[in-house]
Amino acid sequence: MSRILIIGEHDGQNLNLAIAKCVRCAQAIGGDIDIAIFGNAVDAIAAEAASLDSVSKVIAVSADHLAAPLAVNWAPEAVALAADYSHVLGPSTTLGRDLMPRVAALLGVNQVSDIMEVTDSSTFKRPIYAGNAIVDVQCAEGQTIVGTVRAASWQAVDASGSGSVESRAAAGSPASHSRYVGLEAGGGERPDLQSAAKVVSGGRALGSVENFELIYQLADRLGAGVGASRAAVDAATAPTTCRWAKRARSSHRTCTWHSVSPARSSTSPASRTRVPSWQ
Amino acid sequence: MKILVGIKRVVDYNVRVRVLPDGSGVDTDGVKMSVNPFDEIALEEALRIKEAGKAEEVIVVSVGGDECQQQLRTGLAMGADRAIQVKTGESLQPLSVARAFLKIIEREQPGLVILGKQAIDDDNSQTGQMLAALWDRPQATFASKLTLSDGSATVVREVDIGLETIEIDLPAVVTVDLRLNEPRFVKLPDIMKAKRKPLDVVPLEDLDVGADSNLSVTKFAPPAQRAKGIMVEDAAQLVQELKNRGLV
Fold first, then answer.
1. What b-and-e string marks burial along B150-174, b requiring 16 or more CB atoms within 10 Å of the CB?
2. Whole-angstrom Cα distance, residue B228 to residue B246?
3. Chain A contact present for B126, CB below 8 A
4. What's the CA gap between A42 and A168, in Å, rounded?
């Protein structure tokens, strides 16, 4: 029986939507599911995580130096907990992609990136070549499996569970060589691209900032986030913060609406929604 | 200061990759190979730092068979001072590549290591972070702006919700995103000059790096076909269709 630990991403207030999707992936692996929350004063976030279906326990680790999501500070905490688990999962967000390989290296294993399907508890499907091929990855027995979960491939679980919350002291000390300076969030009052359930996206064909205004109007009517292709951003039709057509952006949308050209370079056919390629 | 730049030989990004019918891999027969585009950006950044007088030497490193010398030569033609090939016939996974890089770092003592944020073939996005972990040094992934000052660097990172700024002490590992810069084109005279620049070959065995791996790829398959789209007459029908699918 597997014991699965999910590293919970949050913004200091709310749990990232991707975590409920990681839980769905963990359900497919099968076994006990725990979530670790690192941060400072994380009680509310831990309670939110404990309410997710199938979660047995949330381990809350609070310390000043864990407040900012620096991989150098979070990774030792994940490693300290990993001994009790067969699987350590994180979301395939920029945070997860920054953190999890560091965790994997400290555990001496390679990581299974972007899990899109679970075949059994040690075999996974993941996309390569920007989704132009899907591979089956088999993990060797007897080693911790570290993976990131591709958000677009999984449905979020409901929040009707009742797991317990356990507080623990931080295992590591702050890394003096890395300092968090700040975050310049984009998108203003609209939902940000990462957590928006709906996204309206515009491409180069809109041609001007004035025409792009149509996208904003439509998005506001739908309560959607606003996205833009790389081409539109490069042409200065849309602001940089709207850009989603690249691998760095992960997305949780249930619905996307595009006026973007179907160029192969910006699509990943593996996806249900139109999901960014590396470009 | 020396800057070490990692270079991976990958199928050119313009090539449409095709999965072999027997599912044993993707067809690379006669396919154009190039430097991983993110690694080109990494090298460009290193060259700009050198041109600004903040570094003395730029070294390009690749792990692979002799064919990757072609990509190392491209790096030299762009302006790198010398190249190191860690020679192996096996296809290594990120952890082994990171271990090999660490050995090269111990020899060369660079002040900065710049890598692409991911390779466009395996899309793993692991090597840089793993190297930073094994080296026990800072990491700044997905960099879109890199500013060096005395002994430290300020890095703007492209994250899901915007732009994050962190400050790291050197030496450190930086992995670069698409927006950091636009790599230069290689000029013909530089290609000729690159042939005379030093390229060291270090057998992987000499580095004492285990090529052990906990993952094996058992099957390749083409992606599922996307469902066909539908044409709608007007906005009302569009809204209706979206509602039918429970999307709005």
1. eebbbbbbbbbbbbbbbbbebbbbb
2. 18
3. yes
4. 12
B160 and A110 within 8 Å at the Cβ level: the answer is no
Stretch (H or E) spanning A123? strand A123-128
> Residue written as tokens 């160029």?
A263
Alpha-carbon span A117 to A152, nearest angstrom? 11
CA distances in angstroms from B53 to B46, B58, B148, listed in the order given: 11, 12, 11
Question: Which run of H or E residues covers position A33?
Answer: strand A31-39
- Residue B167 forms contact with A (CB below 8 Å): yes
Distance, CA of A112 to CA of A96 (rounded, Å): 12
Provide the 10 A C-beta neighbour count for residue A143: 15
Alpha-carbon distance of B203 to B100, in angstroms, equals 10
Cβ distance A95 to B16 less than 8 Å, yes or no, reads no
* Helices A71-82, B127-135: inter-axial angle, 10-degree rounding: 80
What span, in angstroms and rounded, lies between the C-alpha atoms of B16 and B36? 15
Task: Count Cβ atoms below 10 Å from residue A50 Cβ, excluding itself.
Answer: 22
Question: Is B2-222 assigned to CATH 3.50.50.60?
Answer: no
Name, in order, each residue with C-beta under 8 angstroms of A34's C-beta and a sequence gap of 6 or more. A3, A4, A5, A6, A55, A56, A57, A58, A59, A85
Interface check B136 vs A, CB under 8 A? no
Provide, as residue numbers in chain A, all residues whose Cβ is less than 8 Å from the Cβ of B38: 278
Instruction: For each of the domains in chain A, give its residue range(s) and CATH number, in order of start.
Output: 2-168 (3.40.50.620), 198-266 (3.40.50.1220)
Which DSSP letter does residue B26 get? Answer: B
pLDDT string in tens for chain B (248-residue length): 999 999 999 999 999 999 999 999 999 889 999 999 999 999 999 999 999 999 999 999 999 999 999 999 999 999 999 999 999 998 899 999 999 999 999 999 999 999 999 999 999 999 999 999 999 999 999 999 999 999 999 999 999 888 999 999 999 999 999 989 999 999 999 999 999 999 999 999 999 887 667 899 999 999 988 788 888 888 889 889 888 887 77
Closest-CA residue to A150 (of A5, A246, A59, A250): A250
Q: Which residue intervals of chain B are DSSP H helices?
A: 37-51, 69-78, 94-108, 127-135, 188-194, 235-244
Helices (H), chain A: 17-29, 43-50, 71-82, 94-107, 209-222, 230-234
Identify residue A38 by its one-letter amino acid code: F
How confident is the model over A101-156, as pLDDT tens digits? 999 999 999 999 999 999 999 999 999 999 999 999 999 988 999 999 998 899 99
Q: Which of B124, B129, B223 is the closest to A98 by Cβ? A: B129
- Other CB atoms within a 10 A radius of the CB of residue B211 amount to 15
- B25: which 2 tokens? 């891999």
Tell me phi and psi for residue B78, to 5 degrees. -65, -25
From the list B134, B177, B218, the residue facing A105 with the nearest CB is B134
